[in-house]
Specification:
The protein has two domains: 123 residues, Lyase, Ornithine Decarboxylase, Chain A, domain 1, CATH 2.40.37.10; 250 residues, TIM Barrel, CATH 3.20.20.10. It contains eleven helices and 17 strands. Strands 1, 11, 12, 13, 14, 15, 16 and 17 form an eight-stranded mixed sheet that branches. Strands 2-3-4-5-6-8-9-10 form an eight-stranded parallel beta barrel, surrounded by four helices. Helix 8 packs parallel to helix 9. The longest helix is centred in the middle third of the chain and has 20 residues. It starts with a helix and ends with a strand. This is Diaminopimelate decarboxylase. Its EC number is 4.1.1.20.
């Protein structure tokens, strides 16, 4: 929901742009901090969701760690003040260059996704005379009940180690003298809103952690990953995820010793609701069966709807009144898939109207591209 003063600012700005509500971000971070610190849990922010500088600065100010999936993200996290000993480095395809950079930075932990990666990290660490701390990312074969494009914890997924490979992992850990085993890591997918899924994950974490302990390895870190979803349909009335229920599931169902730490890697839930993509209607095309609103923003500014049919609320912020017409809201890109949503109910809309695509703070600006040689767009911030 935008105030009259905010809409006036929009009218004076060049479109399209990302609008960041920093107060909304602050409220969300506070809610996460309060809920996680109640149980002594450690939260790492997943930079892949959004690495806008102002966003990173505010997240860092709450004392959260950083979850990175590239050497560039490791560097950005450190540059923006995240503590080296709170940086974890995940990703199924870490290059030697990226591993070396992270070793030199003395990060907290590598989340290792294959036996071969474990051996490569050991080899590179040995050359530097360093000991690399690692957690093993394991596929628990827990169905996240989310879109199949963003499910990551099932068997035969490109991510992580499958359970039938764990004996090989133990052999490699025993052979790698420049590796310090820290614990186990899991991530089963994104946009998960069913808390029963996390109960199932806890059961598998308990089983796998106990298996490592039974085989002589001390599990200090239980990293449950992230994936907590947000309400894309009600961005004004349900704009902060239920962090209390989320963390309580792990408090209630995870077996944690006094000497163990529980870690999380949250991205979307922290930043999704703090931003909207604001665009202008270039053309209104009225057909016999379809009406189209052609915007000056498209898949180059927000690709989620085109990439995996993601839903975003869309509103005409220039007009009030009954939503009595249906439009296919599309972008200007020369691709038939460049459509934000079909049959969107809006007030009758006209050229020059401002359209807001809500809940664009996660996987919006970070996935923007210059396809069609389009300019990268600016960001506006609440005052």
């Amino acid at each position: 929901m935008f105030t009259p003063d905010t809409i006036t600012r929009f009218k004076n700005a060049e479109t399209p742009f990302y609008y960041y509500d920093l107060d909304m971000l602050r409220q969300t971070l506070q809610a996460c901090y309060d809920a996680s610190s109640r149980y002594g849990f450690h939260v790492h922010y997943a930079l892949k969701a959004n690495f806008n500088p102002k966003v990173l600065q505010m997240i860092q100010s709450f004392g959260f760690g950083a979850d990175c999936v590239s050497g560039g993200e490791v560097k950005a996290a450190i540059d923006y003040g995240f503590k080296n000993n709170q940086v974890v480095f995940a990703g199924v395809g870490k290059s030697d260059k990226e591993i070396n950079f992270a070793l030199d930075a003395d990060i907290f932990c590598f989340n290792v996704e294959s036996v071969q990666e474990l051996e490569i990290i050991n080899e590179l660490a040995e050359k530097k005379g360093k000991i690399a701390k690692v957690a093993i990312r394991i596929n628990p074969n827990v169905d996240a009940h989310t879109h199949h494009f963003i499910t990551t914890g099932l068997d035969e997924n490109k991510f992580g180690v499958n359970t039938w490979q764990l004996d090989d992992v133990l052999k490699a850990l025993r052979a790698c003298k420049n590796i310090q085993f820290m614990g186990v890591h899991f991530h089963i997918g994104s946009q998960i809103t069913d808390m029963e899924v996390y109960k199932s994950l806890c059961i598998r974490i308990n089983e796998i952690a106990a298996w490592f302990e039974d085989h002589g390895f001390t599990v200090k870190i239980l990293n449950a990953g992230g994936g907590l979803g947000v309400d894309y349909h009600n961005p004004d009335t349900n704009n902060i995820s239920d962090f209390q229920s989320y963390f309580k599931v792990f408090k209630d169902f995870l077996n944690v010793r006094a000497d163990q730490e529980v870690h999380f890697e949250l991205g979307r839930a922290l930043v999704a609701q703090c931003a909207s993509l604001v665009s202008k209607v270039l053309y209104v095309k009225n057909g016999q069966k379809k009406n189209f609103l052609v915007l000056d923003a498209g898949m180059t500014e927000l690709i989620r709807p085109m990439l995996y049919q993601a839903y975003h609320e869309i509103e005409n912020v220039s007009r009030t009144g009954a939503a009595d017409l249906k439009y296919d809201v599309v972008g200007p890109i020369c691709e038939s898939t460049d459509c934000f949503r079909k049959d969107v109910e809006l007030p009758e809309s006209f050229r020059g109207d401002l359209i807001a695509v809500r809940t664009a703070g996660a996987y919006g600006e970070v996935m923007a591209s210059g396809y069609n040689l389009r300019d990268r767009v600016q960001s506006l911030y609440s005052v």
